[in-house]
Amino acid sequence: YSELVATGHVTRGRLGVVIQGMDEDLAKAVGLDRARGALVEDVESGGPAERAGIKSGDVLLAVDGQTVGRSEDLPRMVAAHHPGTQVKLTVWHDKQTRDVGATLVAIEEKAERGARSESGPSVEPGARSSALGLTVAEKDGRVVVVGVSSDGPADGKLRPGDAIEEMNHQPVISADDLSTKIRAAAADKPLLLRVRRGGTSRYVAIDRASR
Q: Distance between alpha carbon 72 and the CA centroid of its chain, in Å?
């Protein structure tokens, strides 16, 4: 309150991450016992999180020992601290828990971003089917979804126009590469895909054993 009176506003800290919610399939894919914490979708270049060694695919479990129950809790927990504060983050990384320190920076007032296009890229013919119930094609060096089987494991998870960038933290460089990676993966564990849709990337877990 005293800060608000003196300056007319309250300065809040930020971490420099883009996060997404966890579900049971994502938790299983990253090796957690249940859906909890905030999954790091992307890390701002040069921001506090990157300097602390946090990577996309990590899960933030606690801030200063306070559990992050849901992803929606994290922004409020971080913003409760002033810029320049060092917070201790409990991070799930490569199926292990570790604590790292991150020094927060100020939340900046940013101009409103223009609406992102949701239209998928145009795709050339020559699509290939995969074991996920997907039809994919290669376009501009990317592996793009052109069809999703209604009864396949990817139904409800992926849609035409999605570009598959990674599988289990490994880059997907071609349709054949995707098929090879799927065949090599353990059938009883969900596949963790990093997918670009509408200008942003997010993680999707697909459990083949559930179908």
A: 14
